[in-house]
Amino acid sequence: MAFYDGVTERLGFMKKLTPAELKKLGALRLSDLIQGEIGRARVRVAALEKRYPSATTKELAQRLVDEKKSLASMVGGVSGVFGLISLPADLTFMAYLQIVLLTDVATLYKANLKTERARGELLDLFGYANGLGPLHRSGPKVLGKLAALLLTKGGMSTLGRAMPLVAAPITAYLNNQHIQMVGEQAVRFYEGFDKAHAKARTAKRKAASGE
After folding, report:
1. Angle (nearest 5°) at CA 169 between 167 and 175
2. 88 burial via Cβ count (<10 Å: 0-12, 13-18, 19+)
3. What is residue 81's predicted lDDT score, i.e. its pLDDT?
4. Which residues does residue 29 pair with via DSSP β-bridges, in sequence order?
5. I need a surface site. Which of 73, 114, 153, 162 has the fewest CB within 10 A?
6. Measured between alpha carbons, how far is 12 from 79 in angstroms, rounded to an integer?
7. Would you list the DSSP string of 17-55?
8. Three-class SS string for 123-192?
9. Beta carbons within 8 Å of 185's beta carbon, 6+ residues apart
């Protein structure tokens, strides 16, 4: 059943690559996108924890990264074939995929994404990972504009996308590597977040017990 669910989820992601779905995706407000993914992220994380009960949080985070890398590679292979014509679509989907990954990792580390502060931290993390700097207050508000900013700022490498046909494997590789890098930055950030909260909980218990 888990395998079937994984296939179904992958098909759901790939359906977003149609022109109509990409247009809807590009018009989504970033905050709404994150909030809309919270429930799905909880389901994905719970399924992963059930499948790998002995895995550490960091190991589970890498599995989340690997899932998104496989999707990024597939999208890169398609966009590489069409070259620059499909560049905006590729970047829109890649921006979406990164935000989904960040939402998954934040959920895994028990960040409360219902709060504006936590969503702002996630968007800032996205911005830093892509060389854009903090996004929470002054960055783009919708996904399509964020993808355009990625293109103009060169946060994602466009080498593969500039060479049609022969570049499909190169684009897939670049997308894969970029997702890995974003995932690693997310893990570093939320590992620190998790440790800080663990210390706070320990201090609170000691204070309550009078130690």
Report:
1. 100
2. middle
3. 42
4. 142
5. 114
6. 18
7. TSHHHHHHHHTSBHHHHHHHHHHHHHHHHHHHHHH-TT-
8. HHHHHHHCCCCCCCCCCCCEHHHHHHHHHHHCCCCCCHHHCCCCCHHHHHHHHHHHHHHHHHHHHHHHHH
9. 125, 128, 129
133: left (phi over 0), alpha (psi -120 to 50) or beta: left
64 within 8 A of 108, measured Cβ to Cβ: yes
3-class SS of residue 201: helix
| Residue reference for tokens 């997308």 | 175
Region of 112 on the Ramachandran plot (φ > 0 left; ψ -120 to 50 alpha; else beta) = beta
User: Considering only CA atoms, which of 37, 38, 57 is closest in space to residue 49?
Assistant: 57
Q: Considering the entire predicted model, what is its pTM?
A: 0.79
Neighbours of 199 (CB within 10 A): 10
Q: Which two tokens stand for residue 76?
A: 């890169």
Q: Which residue has the tokens 């218990």?
A: 205
Rounded to an integer, what distance in angstroms lies between the CA atom of residue 38 and that of residue 84? 33
3-state secondary structure of 203: helix
202 residue type, one letter: T
145-185 pLDDT per residue, tens: 888 888 777 544 444 444 444 455 556 666 778 889 999 99
- In whole angstroms, what is the distance from residue 86 CA to residue 144 CA? 14
DSSP, collapsed to helix, strand or coil, labels residue 1 as coil
